[in-house]
């Protein structure tokens, strides 16, 4: 389904060959240029300060930034033979699903993967920072702290509105199955029908978020009572005075994934950046700036009290957490999202 | 020329409700740009100029304002000229395939913008104009053309052709008839078209989102990017500033049109 | 009287070439993909129609668009009519009030509605004051409709006023002097003369409503999702260009069908109201 229309690609290649302008921006391959695409704003600024700028000084490369990461844009760049991005920050499933087609395989001879949590790296990607999808509850509302996801579905004991991410991979499906009694080790492959049936039991109490800023705003304004949010957003909300508290049991671990776009015009520089990003120091620097934790567990960021509270890399959190199965999501992203849209819009 | 008809109270009340609906969001946006808290909650609790400061010190924001205004003016001018000429041709020539051409010109409003965005991004990428000002300008021109064709066509439909015939009888040539008779009569439609076109470009976010680069980012894209990351009252600042600029751009032609009409009227009366 | 074909071709050329090259070519190529991927045939359409979401959301989108047209006429027609009755100063004020939303960024307006409609927001407070406590419109169909009508209303009013301002009120006086009462004059003389504007405004609002994306996303829940949002998921999450192209073709054909039906219905409506209106 995602394959290129060969004719289109061929004619595009032919046109390129004729016009003689290989590789997008025209700054091809001499190793002095690199374009980094990520999610923009403070997040990308922090990535620049902690990772790109130090690396660029060392390697003598000029870095251009672009944002936001967009899967259709990547597909069209690669399909048209006009790749202008080199290194990209994506969700974890993407490089696994598109390894060799839209992203390059990495050379792991200079990357130490032993410090990454199991399942967070792949042939085409390394984790740069980790976070978790967690349940938070309004501590002013509920004297008794909920212990696990069963509480999320118990509208008698914990009445009120629940906020969940509005896409299949957001975590609501996993949470529904765990609450329904599925053991963490038997979670994947997900039983979609069972998950939707469980979600239907609280459908009238559900609200949905599409962008993480919406979720943070809801926590700050107290317009919901329980929520499934990213740990970093719960942290930001707490800084802004929200009364929500995290529950770490069965937190769903996810991570910011770095990979190289297929046919990147600056492959060598891109590989060098990936190798640098895998190290502990840039990851520690990033964790001090943004509410994400290092994926390289050797990293020793200096964290304040609230940052420590939301530190996903802490051993006690890692012990209770569940690592999302990227291979499952790589294989079933389309199917699960179609099912999610069908369910959520009806 | 119009005889005054007395306005009944229910009509006035209903129009009042309509006016309130029209301006309600603006009444929120302007005070929101002066809020003290990083929040969209209303009413405002404390006041500050911090979001204005942020807007004018961050090149991402004021640069985007410049980009948007430049593209919107360019796109609206080209679309207004091209769209008006096309509407006139369609109205007068009675082409056999006129309906087909009309449908073609209306296509850009009918195609869902998200699809237009992906399609345009892919094709422009191949042409090497994705991420360039030219690419964004072309996309906004074609998007705005239907918004000119519709009101101009409507104005032409209610235009009395006997006037033109009279002008022809009096010896006015083709261009003379156009400039002196037809254009002034359809000018409300043309102005409406220009306003629609300008606003279409100024507010368009989905296509501009796909065609953006860090150096070419329109204001709505900057606003959208900003609020997907954090709650950011700077969008209220951006909107309040755009309000000022649009007021100037839109009121000026209206002002001149009104003055022209007054002058014409003065000439008519001996 | 007839302009030469060459002359009109020259007038048409800029607009037609611009739209054909810069718009139809890209759209054509993506729609083409819906017929060629994964292989030549209608597999994409079988897939889309097998998905229960497609027809359900398409139907909902049409209903919402019709509702928006109805509400825009309900608010917009009396308003545009009033604009023809008042003096030039009041008319200018009314015009500015219509343009104010245009001058306020669409994105900011949508967020303004979020703050107006949210839990314990001003609209809730107003409704509570009016004796209907505990109502939150954010995340409901009503909330989406309010936001959409506010955005679409200026298009309706401006299109209508272009037509209404040119109706000769002398005709009404004539009708009344011939013994028709106010209501008969309005329905038999004024309304038929205003129909081109009503039709153009309704068509514009209807078409624009079909493409709404950000407003229902922010003001509604997934249950209020419109077709553009479903296409958005196909593009952004599934990277399914063929499916997105196919869905757009379905939307295009549906729109064309609705407009054709409206044009056919329009003639009898006009005839029924007793006004030929054919100007040549």
Compact description:
The complex is a heterotrimer of chains A (346), B (270) and C (280). By secondary structure, chain A is of the alpha/beta class.
Descriptive report:
The complex is a heterotrimer of chains A (346), B (270) and C (280). Chain A is α/β, with parallel strands linked by helices. Chain A has helices at 6-19, 41-59, 71-80, 93-97, 172-179, 192-200, 212-221, 231-239, 267-277, 280-289, 305-309, 315-320, 326-344; strands spanning 33-37, 62-66, 87-90, 126-138, 162-165, 206-209, 226-230, 244-260, 293-294, 322-323. Chain A has two domains: 6-128 and 256-304, D-Maltodextrin-Binding Protein, domain 2, CATH 3.40.190.10; 131-254 and 320-344, Periplasmic binding protein-like II (D-Maltodextrin-Binding Protein, domain 2). Helices cover 39% and strands 18% of the residues of chain A. In chain A, strands 1, 2, 3, 4, 5, 6, 7, 8, 9 and 10 form a ten-stranded mixed beta sheet that branches. Chain B has 270 residues and is mainly α. The two termini of chain B are 17 Å apart. The model of chain B has no long low-confidence stretch (mean pLDDT 85). Chain C has 280 residues and is mainly alpha-helical. Chain C has two domains: 1-36, no CATH class; 51-272, MetI-like fold (Orthogonal Bundle). In chain C, α3 (52-85) packs antiparallel against α9 (182-210) and α4 crosses α7 (141-164). Chain C is globular and about 70 Å long. Residues 274-280 of chain C have low confidence and may be disordered. The chains are: A alpha/beta (346), B mainly alpha (270), C mainly alpha (280). Chains in contact: A-B, A-C, B-C.
> Helix share of residues of chain C?
over 70%
Question: How would you describe the shape of chain A?
Answer: globular
**C-alpha-based Rg of chain A, rounded:** 21 Å
Q: What is the CATH superfamily label of the largest domain in chain C?
A: MetI-like
Q: What's the architecture of the largest domain in chain A, going by CATH?
A: 3-Layer(aba) Sandwich
Overall mean pLDDT of chain A = 90
H/E element order of chain C: HHHHHHHHHHHH
Subcellular location (chain B): Cell inner membrane; Cell membrane
Transmembrane segments (chain B): 12-34, 61-88, 100-125, 137-156, 185-211, 235-257
Main location (chain B): membrane
Domain ABC transmembrane type-1 (chain B): 65-253
């Amino acid at each position: 389904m995602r394959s290129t229309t060969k004719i289109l690609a061929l004619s595009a290649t032919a046109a390129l060959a004729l016009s003689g302008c290989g590789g997008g921006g025209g700054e091809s391959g001499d190793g002095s240029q690199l374009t980094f695409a990520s999610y923009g704003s403070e997040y990308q600024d922090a990535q620049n300060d902690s990772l790109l700028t130090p690396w660029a000084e060392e390697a003598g490369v000029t870095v251009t930034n672009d944002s936001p990461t967009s899967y259709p844009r990547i597909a069209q760049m690669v399909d048209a033979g006009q790749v202008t991005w080199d290194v990209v920050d994506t969700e974890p499933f993407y490089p696994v699903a598109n390894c060799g087609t839209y992203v390059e395989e990495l050379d792991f001879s200079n990357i130490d993967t032993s410090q990454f949590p199991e399942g967070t790296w792949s042939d085409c990607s390394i984790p740069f920072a980790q976070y978790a999808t967690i349940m938070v509850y309004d501590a002013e509302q509920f004297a008794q702290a909920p212990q696990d996801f069963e509480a999320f579905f118990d509208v008698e004991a914990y009445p009120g509105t629940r906020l969940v991410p509005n896409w299949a991979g957001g975590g609501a499906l996993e949470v529904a199955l765990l609450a329904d009694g599925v053991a963490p080790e038997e979670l994947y492959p997900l039983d979609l029908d069972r998950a939707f049936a469980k979600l239907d039991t609280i459908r009238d109490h559900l609200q949905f978020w599409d962008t993480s800023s919406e979720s943070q705003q809801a926590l700050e304004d107290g317009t919901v009572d329980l929520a499934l949010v990213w740990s970093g957003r719960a942290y930001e909300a707490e800084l802004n005075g929200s009364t929500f508290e995290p529950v770490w049991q069965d937190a769903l671990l996810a991570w910011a994934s770095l990979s190289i776009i297929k046919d990147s015009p600056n492959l060598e520089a891109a590989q060098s950046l990936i190798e640098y990003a895998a190290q502990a120091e840039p990851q520690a620097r990033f964790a001090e700036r943004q509410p994400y934790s290092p994926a390289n567990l050797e990293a020793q960021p200096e964290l304040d009290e609230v940052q420590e509270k939301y530190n996903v890399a802490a051993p006690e959190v890692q012990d209770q957490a569940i690592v999302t199965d990227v291979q499952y999501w790589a294989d079933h992203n389309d199917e699960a999202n179609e099912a999610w849209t069908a369910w959520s819009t009806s | 020329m119009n005889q005054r008809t007395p306005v009944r109270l229910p009509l006035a009340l209903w129009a009042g409700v309509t006016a309130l609906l029209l301006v309600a969001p603006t009444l929120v946006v302007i005070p929101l740009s002066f809020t003290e808290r990083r929040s969209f909650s209303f009413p405002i609790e404390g006041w500050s100029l911090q979001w204005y400061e942020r807007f004018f010190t961050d090149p991402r924001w004021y640069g985007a304002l410049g980009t948007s205004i430049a593209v919107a003016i360019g796109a609206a001018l080209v679309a207004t000229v091209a769209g008006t000429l096309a509407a006139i041709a369609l109205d007068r020539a009675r082409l056999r395939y006129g309906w087909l051409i009309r449908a073609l010109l209306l296509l850009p409003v009918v195609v869902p913008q998200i699809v237009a965005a992906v399609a345009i991004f892919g094709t422009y990428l191949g042409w090497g104009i994705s991420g360039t000002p030219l690419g964004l300008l072309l996309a906004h021109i074609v998007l705005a053309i239907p918004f000119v064709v519709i009101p101009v066509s409507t104005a032409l439909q209610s235009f009395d052709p006997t006037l033109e015939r009279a002008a022809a009888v009096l010896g006015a040539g083709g261009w003379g008839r156009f400039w002196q008779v037809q254009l002034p009569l359809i000018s409300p439609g043309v102005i409406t078209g220009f306003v629609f076109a300008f606003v279409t470009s100024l507010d368009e976010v989905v296509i501009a989102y796909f065609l953006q680069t860090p150096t070419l980012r329109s204001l709505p894209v900057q606003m959208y990017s900003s609020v997907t990351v954090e709650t950011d009252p700077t969008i209220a600042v951006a909107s309040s500033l755009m309000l000022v600029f649009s007021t100037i751009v839109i009121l000026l032609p209206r002002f001149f049109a009104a003055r022209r009409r007054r002058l014409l009227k003065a000439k008519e009366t001996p | 009287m007839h302009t030469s074909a060459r002359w009109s071709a020259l007038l048409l050329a800029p607009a037609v070439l611009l739209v054909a090259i810069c718009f139809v070519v890209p759209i054509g190529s993506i729609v083409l993909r819906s017929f060629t991927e994964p292989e030549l045939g209608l597999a994409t359409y079988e897939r889309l129609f097998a998905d229960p979401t497609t027809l359900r959301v398409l139907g909902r989108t049409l209903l919402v668009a019709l509702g928006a047209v109805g509400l825009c006429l309900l608010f917009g027609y009396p308003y545009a009519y009033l604009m023809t009755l008042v003096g030039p100063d009041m008319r200018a004020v009314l015009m500015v009030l219509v343009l104010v939303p245009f001058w306020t960024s669409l994105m900011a307006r949508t967020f303004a509605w979020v703050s107006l409609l949210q839990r314990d927001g001003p609209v809730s407070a107003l409704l509570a004051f009016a004796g209907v406590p505990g109502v939150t419109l954010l995340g409901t169909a009503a909330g989406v409709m309010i936001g959409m009508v506010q955005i679409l209303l200026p298009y309706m009013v401006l299109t209508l006023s272009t037509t209404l301002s040119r109706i000769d009120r002398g005709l009404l006086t004539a009708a009344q002097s011939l013994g028709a009462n106010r209501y008969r004059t309005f329905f038999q003389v004024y309304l038929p003369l205003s129909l081109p504007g009503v039709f153009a405004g309704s068509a514009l609002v209807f078409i624009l409503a079909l493409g709404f994306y950000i407003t229902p996303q922010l003001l509604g829940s997934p249950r209020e999702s419109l077709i553009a949002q479903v296409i958005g998921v196909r593009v952004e999450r599934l990277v399914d260009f063929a499916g997105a192209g196919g869905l757009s073709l379905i939307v295009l054909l549906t729109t064309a069908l609705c407009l054709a039906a409206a044009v056919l219905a329009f003639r009898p409506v006009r005839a029924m109201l007793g006004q030929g209106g054919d100007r040549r």
